[in-house]
Amino acid sequence: MPSLSDMNTDDVTKLADIAAAEQTHDAHVTNVETRPAFFEWLCRMGDTTLILGQRLSEWCGHGPALEEDIALTNTALDLIGHTQLWLGLAGEVENEGRSADQLAFLRDALKFRNVLLVEVPNGDMGVTTMRQFLFDAFHYELLQRLTESTSPRVAEIAAKALKEVSYHVERSTDLVVRLGDGTPESHDRMQQALDILWSYTGDMFVSDGVDATMAEAGIAPSPDTLREAWLARVEDVLDEATLNVPDNASCIPAARPANTRSIWATSCPICSFCSAPIRAPAGSRWRGAV
Amino acid sequence: MYAQNVSTGTQGVRDADELSPEEAAFQARIDGNIKIEPKDWMPAAYRKTLIRQIGQHAHSEIVGQLPEGNWVTRAPTLERKAILLAKVQDEAGHGLYLYCAAETLGISRDELMNKLHSGEMKYSSIFNYPTLTWADMGAVGWLVDGAAIMNQVPLQRTSFGPYARAMVRICKEESFHQRQGYSIMMSMVSGTPAQKEMAQDALNRFWYPALMMFGPSDKDSVHSDQSMAWKIKMNTNDELRQRFVNETVPQAHYLGLTIPDDDLVWNEETGNYDFSQPDWEEFKAVLKGNGPCNRERLGARIKAWEGGEWFRDGLAAYAEKAAKRRVAA
Q1: β-strand pairing of B265-267 with B272-274
Q2: Exposed end of chain B (fewer CB within 10 Å): N or C?
Q3: What is chain A's Cα-based Rg?
């Protein structure tokens, strides 16, 4: 059993402050002109990884095999780590004193800016696995492009995340192929999952004014430019998995109202129930010196 | 500890002159602190007892994911969420090493799972208690992982090689887990009065169930002598329980929390705290399946296993097809 003095770790907030002081200088972070768009875009990134991390966490202890349980929580852990970085930077860009935690837990569900695909409820492991693959393939293309961002801070986060996401996509690809070409039941479940999820994939490539500003500043690529590479990879994998690509016309983006990113606000995995502890009265402490 | 009341299937420890030559040589190796490895000869009862003990330990790790996994989506900060995820992931990893250690004794993971689901094998009584608030994540890490470490540190010297080696890594991680639990308690007791009350309430609810983790009192622990002779149990239940109380009480005082025991007092003469025993009738009821969460916990494991059958079958079928394709190529 560790001794009492061993139990008292260094103050995490102090360590975080030291790390913050060592941040790379980035003119984009303080650029007033692009600030609203940059903040919005960073929230889209952070919300997407947060919601998927949250969804995957729901599997904790309930996976179909122990190895799978570990892999799902590991992926969730990576995504929560990305969220800390994206929303942390969003708070800096916004410059109103909001932390990553405040952005993650204290906004209403309707203010979330994640891509729709990651919100889709877990369903069975077929839906969870297929959702992961379709997203990983997109995430990989996006992060790869972001490593060339004119924002050094964005490029740094992307480079770190890319290492993890390279593994995510390798793993989800492997599972889609195995389950698609496994038993008749696993094949049918994967096809059914694909049919359910396909209509949400188009949303990942919708490009709006925020994206145009980001592209113009060289911070991030316009999402529509990622679709070709994504589709090529997805079609290859689905072919190997003996699954049929649904009709491309059935994508949802055109049907989504302007400025509304979330359609499942009622089943949002960061609902008031999940964030209840942090909504506790001022002065509540959840870590060292907060 | 994560293995309680493990039966050895023997009638007490036999004298040296009652042992067969093989048994005598086996016991001499154990007495000489030489590890027993999977391919070595071992008495059938030693093998059976180890399967029970390691299996129960493994089951405890994976059932133990549930009360904490329940709070991952509701952790109060991103950092706490990440730490808790990593912790629960470690527990699943411990389950994995332990099932592998049990497999070296000739039983498959699937067989062990079936025994868990049928109720033939047990898991630690502690996981049949609910986790009601975020402070319970602190109490579980501090007290439950703390009690587990008490038992598992000596098990690094246990006679069966694969078990002892698995325990080395497990202990390193458990020690970190206990620190994260204590860190949650530290934050809560220095927060609002409501948070401190929540921390005290968690201690009140987990104190006696944590004491039960060491198993029944030595006088009622019928299988201890043989397990200790085989060095698959290194200390008696009461020794470990006393050590746990001695170390935990000052930690509670440091937090400004009160151990829920009016009779707790430092005994100068023995150099130990005197303390009240848990309610052993409650312990027996929980082991029999009548704790507050037994049905829920086992139900969740069975649901995960049955719901995942198509997934496991799909992967196995693909592996078979791929092997055939390789042969044909």
Answers
A1: antiparallel
A2: C
A3: 20
Cα end-to-end distance, chain A, whole Å: 28
A172 in any annotated domain: yes
CB of B158 closer than 8 Å to CB of B164 = yes
Residue A254 belongs to domain spanning? 29-279
Residue A201 falls inside a structural domain: yes
pLDDT band at B19 (very low <50, low <70, confident <90, very high): confident
d(CA B65, CA B95): 10
Least confident of A258-267, B103-112, B172-181, B294-303: A258-267
- Residues of chain A contacting residue B244, judged by C-beta atoms under 8 Å apart: 1
Identify whether A111 is part of a domain: yes
Joined together, the tokens standing for residue A236 give 């290859």
CATH at residue A253: 1.20.1260.10
Q: Using the beta-carbon criterion (under 8 Å), do A70 and B78 form an inter-chain contact?
A: no
Chains A, B: CB contacts under 8 A, how many? Answer: 192
Closest alpha carbon within chain B to A72: B89
Cα separation, A135 vs A119, in Å, equals 11
Scan residues 184-203 of A and list those with Cβ closer than 8 Å to B.
Answer: 185-187, 189
Hey, are the CB atoms on B313 and A81 less than 8 Å from each other?
no
Sorted by where each starts, the structural domains of chain B and their CATH numbers stand as 16-328 (1.20.1260.10)
CB B125 within 8 A of CB B283: yes
* Averaged pLDDT for residues B161-169: 94
A216 falls in which pLDDT band (50, 70, 90)? very high
C-beta atoms of B321 and A269 within 8 A: no
Specify which residues B267 forms β-bridges with: B272
The minimal CB distance from B251 to the residues A4, A73, A277 is found for: A4
Find the radius of gyration of the CA atoms of chain B: 21
- Tell whether A279 lies on the interface with B, counting CB pairs under 8 A: no
pTM across the whole model: 0.91
Best interface-test mutation with A: which of B59, B72, B243 has the largest number of A CBs within 10 A? B72
| Whole-number Å distance between alpha carbons of B112 and A29 | 55
Give CA–CA dist A185/B122, Å, rounded.
33
Tell me whether residues A124 and B307 touch, CB distance under 8 A. yes
B177: closest CA among B89, B96, B55?
B89
Q: Tokens for B110?
A: 């699937």
- pLDDT > 70? residue B198: yes
Question: Is it the case that residue A145 has pLDDT exceeding 50?
Answer: yes
Q: Cβ A80–B82 below 8 Å, yes or no?
A: yes
CB nearest to A286's CB, from B69, B95, B187 = B187
Q: Tell me if B1 sits within 8 A of B213, measured CB to CB.
A: yes
Report the pLDDT value the prediction gives residue B296, as an integer from 0 to 100.
96
DSSP labels, A65-105:
SHHHHHHHHHHHHHHHHHHHHHHHHHHHHHTSS--HHHHHH
- DSSP conformation letters of B149-175: HHHHHHHTT-SBHHHHHHHHHHHHHHH
ipTM of the complex: 0.91
Residue A19 lies in a domain: no
* Nearest Cα to Cα of residue B1 among B219, B243, B199, B277: B243
Angstrom CA distances, A159 to A156, A219, B220, B305, stand at 5, 14, 59, 37
Name which of B1, B65, B70, B85 to mutate to probe chain A: the one with the most chain A Cβ atoms within 10 A of its Cβ.
Answer: B85
* Domain total of chain A: 1
